Amino acid sequence: MRIRALDRKMLRELWRLRGQLLSIGLVVATAVMMLVTMRGTFEALFEARAAYYRDYRLGDVWSTLEQAPESLRERIARIPGVAAVETRVTTFATLDLPWLDAPGQGLFVSVPEGRRAAVDDIHIREGRYVRAGRASEVVVSENFFLSNGLQVGDTIRAVLNGIRRDMRIVGSAISPAHSYAVPPGALYPDDERYGVFWMSREVLGPNLQADDAFNEVAVRLGRGASETAVIRELDRVLDPYGGLGAYGRPDQLSYKILNDELNQNRSMGTAFPLVFLGVAAFLLNLVLSRLIATQRTEIGALKAVGYTNREIGVHFLSYSVAAVGLGTLLGALGGVWAGDAMIDLYGVYFNFPALEHRLSWTLVAIGGGISLVAAVLGGGGAVRRAASLPPAEAMRPEPPDRFTPGWVERVGVGDMLSTSGRLILRNLERRPVRAMMSSLGVAFSVAILVIGMFMFDGMELMIDLQFEVAQREDLTVAFNRDLGDEVRYDLARMPGVTRVEPFHIVPVRLHAGHRERELAITGLEPDSRLRRIVSENRRIHPIPLEGLILSAILADRLGVAQGDTLGVEALTGLRRTERIAVADVVHDLMGISAYMSMDALRRLTREGPRATGAYLLTDGARLNEVNQELKQAPGVASVASPATMQASFETQLEDSLFIAIFFIVGFASIISVAIIYNGTRIALSERGRELASLRVLGFTRKEVSTLLFGEQAVITLFAIPVGWGIGYALAYLLLTSLNSETYRIPLVVSGQTYFWTAAITLAAAVASAMLVRRRLNRMDLIAVLKTRE
Amino acid sequence: MVGSTPGRGDAGKGTGEGGGPRLGATVLEARDLSKIYDMGEVQVEALRSVDLDLYSGELTVLLGASGSGKSTLLNIVGGLDRPTSGTLHYGDWDLSEADDHELTLYRRRYVGFVFQLYNLIPSLTARENVSLVSEIARDPMRPEEALELVGLGDRLDHFPAQLSGGEQQRVAIARAVAKRPELMLCDEPTGALDVKTGKLVLAVLDQVNRETGTTTAIITHNVAIGGLGDRVIRMSSGEIAEVTVNHERSSLDEVEW
Predict the structure, then answer these.
(1) How far away is chain A from the Cα of B220, in angstroms, using its nearest Cα?
(2) Which of A238, A448, A740, B110 has its CB 3.0 to 4.6 Å from that of A243, i.e. a possible disulfide?
(3) Which of A254, A275, A307 is the C-terminal boundary of a domain?
(4) Parent domain of A630
């Protein structure tokens, strides 16, 4: 088959422009890859979660209670809408982990014998399920198992009901109901010291006063059942047995956290690719229209010899199609690779049994399609403009632009500039729209750098506020059960302890009109110094003598403001309900919290002074000693160290920072280079004659480069602050969709981020200039002057 | 004003040589053509009420200083531009009313152009530049044949950048000839060339005209070239100032500048 001359021309031109087309293609590739990877990962996670919840029968409604006889199970099963019921015994126990300084804590959950649970089943990752009649066998949550380097067959010692027991680990497992294991009173998991243990009810049951009793129930709802109705009915049934209030999935910790994280992932997976696609579309439009504009005389010649506008249009659109096609292909390939890598990363984090990444051709098509439309519009506009000129005119070189001193010169700045400076200025002023568009393109790459990096500023602030300002204790001690206030003196007497501040946690249900919410109120001492309530602007909110302090997000969800009153129903003790005023609202960054003074809380519960745990400050040198001592103390359930958590948080942050920086910097650089390189290349072909004339007149290469690159330098320098502004605005939009009850990243952009975004953009500009410089140096003066492109 | 009427044109035909198709009917007829360029603050009248006829097989030389309107006239005649007023007929085809698509068809089927700056596609070889046109023509010559005709049979696979100016212009002529056009329109074909090369190019145009009988119009500011045409139309300030009929076309050897 013979290749038509016009197609030959196309192939050669594509080859000649390969650098420019490749740089545009890479922008498309980046956008497609982002879309395929991020959105694809979200879809994979979403599917994996759905399968996980279905296959392991995550419950729909749960309730904890003091205890109830197993016979109550029948009544629960008869509640309309309930499809399956599982009762169980759960209890906390202290773990003796010889390899750790401090004691660990386990949540022990009973599993049915001889069958799998009808609700909240577990998925065995290693080893096997517990066998009927083997009371000492235990299955351990995978994170704890791995963090402590345990093996199947190892023995672990725990103090259950005051009895020290050795249990044999027969397997490790994950469970949808306990995917996020947080020690009581803590905000985040501590996998080394806190785990979930599944074992036979035979051992756990006697923890309760009656044999065959349970203290937790989980149900699954039938199709079309009302969650609200089942919760109400379950509360009614369990009330005489000390029910702590039934709750649905939205209030189940593991479900909620996972849901928040997936939603964040969805926001990121939509927002980031959209920003990239938008920028890519903008760039394609800009670069292709300029590229085709330089072909004006060829378009004229083709028209003169009889080619139709349509033939010419199709021919020049091949630039767009080639760049987008190449980009989409590279993006899809990159998406396969990055998608697998992301899934590996998330696999470790989310722990779903079946998580795999499949390349979504739909997403590839969407990404490629949007890019193609942008490219065709951009290229098409330029072709139309060139083709609409009568060929006679198109073939003539563009008439010299009418130069006039622009406003910058008119206001007198011009006098301060050299001739080169004035030339640069006039070139920019001659095409103000084009200069601004180019600048906007570079600004977008700066903006992408900003949104890629600012989050770490926010997280650093969050960590700083949490660990340096709010949590100032060395150790957080949780007791097995609420103790009398005098425990503070026991703790204070321990050698090495310099300050003790007890706290009291009471589970409550808050009522505001028709809205209600179950959570725990933390009672603190009014002059609390170890634990302080801090808002995002670092203001420390004192504990009021009366009334509640609520997280702003909680006040918002309940529809209340400072000064309003709430119905507060205690879910323990006498279960009194009292109306309590909202004394203060705090814009905090982590979790969803309610605080009161310990005295005010005691008035609600009508109990004597109680402590759920205590914050300790130690003489740094003796921290280890204190830890050892606490490990032996019978009433202590767990000891957490904020410093350890901070360290693990920071490691995590650094790891993800590295990955993010690698990608974001790479992507933003591609965009910067694409726009600056193309801008300079096109400027060179547009003004080759002018520059060659200057060389003939005796200008040095350096002086000519200054003229060419000076323009790009002004465009780039102008773009940086604009990009910061756009980045800040995008960051704001991103955060509104990202922030959740688990944490709220504050919108702060550090000087460091501003510095690096500018530095990376400038580096990309310099790299592009160097690429074009080679071409400028090779310029054949005579040829340029004789012919015309 | 002085116009060229068919009668005078007819009278001026025939050099006696070759017989051939030279003595033809009117191929193209322009009446009262005007062209005004709107330059913003000023309006430039490039053509004022020009009448022109081109006859089959004839070689016409349009002579005039820069700015006399000759290129504007040629562009309109070739369908590259539209007149502001007046009529233009190619046979029965009213080109003054034609839209962009019709003008494209007209150029594609009937007109071959040669430009002062060649306007070759730099990324295509000589042969491919000719193919570019022969591929969209109805009864084209083979590109090799067309290039042979202009004496470039041995430079088929050279890119424009590898050819001298004269060679490039001959490729442009081959490109125009290959489609066997009815009309060959040449805008300052020697304008960018030295005398020796220019003569070579003119010889090719003369030869093509004689051998194929293609109606040819050549624009030039070079008075000496006028002798080569059957008819010389002198233009000045957008009007036809004088029409001369050469009963004998000069040979190239007699032309000097």
Answers:
(1) 17
(2) A238
(3) A254
(4) 475-640
